[in-house]
Amino acid sequence: MERDQRKRLWTPQSASAYWKEKHDQELEAVAKRDGKDVARKIDEVLASLSGDEREVLELLLLKRMASVIALYETSVLGRLQEKGLLQPRLGVGTILMQNMETCFSVPRAVWAELEARRDRFVDKDASEDILEARISALVAKFENALQPVDIEQMPPVTQT
Hints:
Elements: H1 12-34, H2 36-40, H3 42-47, H4 51-63, E1 67-71, H5 75-82, E2 87-88, H6 93-96, E3 101-105, H7 108-116, H8 128-141, E4 146-149
Antiparallel strand pairs: 1-3, 1-4, 2-3
Helix pairs in contact: 4-8
């Protein structure tokens, strides 16, 4: 009696294809988290900003802080998130949501591009007093609804 030959589902070829797909998915997730797709088209994205969206980025650049704690319903942050310029930070929702606040961060690759274009937002020849006055004006404009925070030192963007 001959044994039935079953077709092997896990072959060296299928294993190789599986692990390649997993690796590609991981690279894609890291690139999305780091904002690399938005960073590649940063000039186009910056050209589409409204005045208040530019001012939020200006405030972050002035404070040199890539993260902000804000009231959850701050619409300008939602618009920046839709454009890929901000992302909600993982793991902070349950901590801050009791106060209807949450934390957003500029993705690493986007922050690097914003820093490279800092002079589009911040006058490099302005005195410290003028810069401090501008920070105060922006904080007042947003009625203390958002606060830039230094959550972490941003490590350099890794190349993929």
